[in-house]
Q: What sequence folds into this?
């Protein structure tokens, strides 16, 4: 038996789950536009543990969403996960954010899933998966144009989801595109992925693990005030 704490903070959604052998038994989540991860994450962990009727000492591993995503959100999630792993002497598991987002839906055979996270202007972070969640194209930061993903269309459906897909509706006009609303990275969808990694001993070095930012963090200077 494996009890795994899953932490997702890569976007506006602050999400925590406790899973037993890949099945969620405790869950707490808030999709907040104000990015309240610093205030909410630890109380959410406590609530999820209570809901699962276990103690923190019962955990066998901690899984964290590795990115891409919000620089600050990823730092908060990874720092918390590392702290728990050090304190409890348990392994750290990383889950690619877009992989878990892809698992938020199931599609028919021959279809593709494109999970997307919003970046700046018409830029998104995206990757492509088949109906069995096998990686078809690695994660990229890309500017969306009317020709984006045209090489994958053929005669199949392509499902786009995540907060990056919303701004693509006016650009991607093919009837093969299906836009799935109200889906975002969640600790619910991390549960089975992290359990599979746990069984394979696919773990990270707690001391040296860093989030996958994809792009360098850019500080925007504040405007001068008179």
A:
């Amino acid at each position: 038996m494996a009890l795994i704490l899953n932490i997702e903070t890569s976007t506006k959604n602050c999400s925590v789950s406790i899973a037993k052998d890949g099945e969620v038994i405790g869950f707490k989540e808030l999709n907040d536009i104000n990015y309240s991860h610093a205030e909410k994450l630890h109380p959410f962990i406590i609530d999820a543990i209570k809901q699962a009727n276990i103690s923190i000492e019962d955990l066998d591993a901690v899984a964290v969403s590795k990115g891409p995503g919000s620089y600050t959100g990823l730092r908060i999630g990874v720092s918390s996960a590392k702290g728990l792993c050090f304190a409890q002497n348990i392994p750290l598991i990383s889950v690619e954010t877009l992989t878990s987002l892809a698992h938020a839906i199931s599609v028919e055979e021959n279809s593709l899933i494109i999970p997307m996270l919003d970046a700046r202007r018409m830029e998104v972070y995206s990757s492509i998966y088949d109906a069995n969640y096998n990686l078809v194209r690695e994660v990229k930061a890309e500017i969306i144009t009317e020709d984006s993903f045209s090489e994958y269309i053929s005669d199949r459906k392509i499902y786009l989801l995540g907060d990056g897909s919303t701004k693509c509706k006016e650009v991607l006009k093919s009837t093969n595109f299906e836009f799935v609303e109200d889906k975002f990275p969640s600790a619910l969808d991390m549960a089975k992925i992290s359990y599979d990694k746990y069984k394979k001993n696919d773990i990270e070095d707690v001391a040296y693990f860093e989030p996958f930012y994809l792009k360098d963090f850019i500080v925007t200077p504040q405007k001068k005030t008179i």
Observations:
- The radius of gyration is 18 Å.
- The beta strands are 3-8, 13-20, 23-31, 61-65, 92-95, 112-118, 123-130, 135-143, 158-161, 177-180.
- The chain has five helices and ten strands.
- The first strand starts at residue 3 and ends at 8.
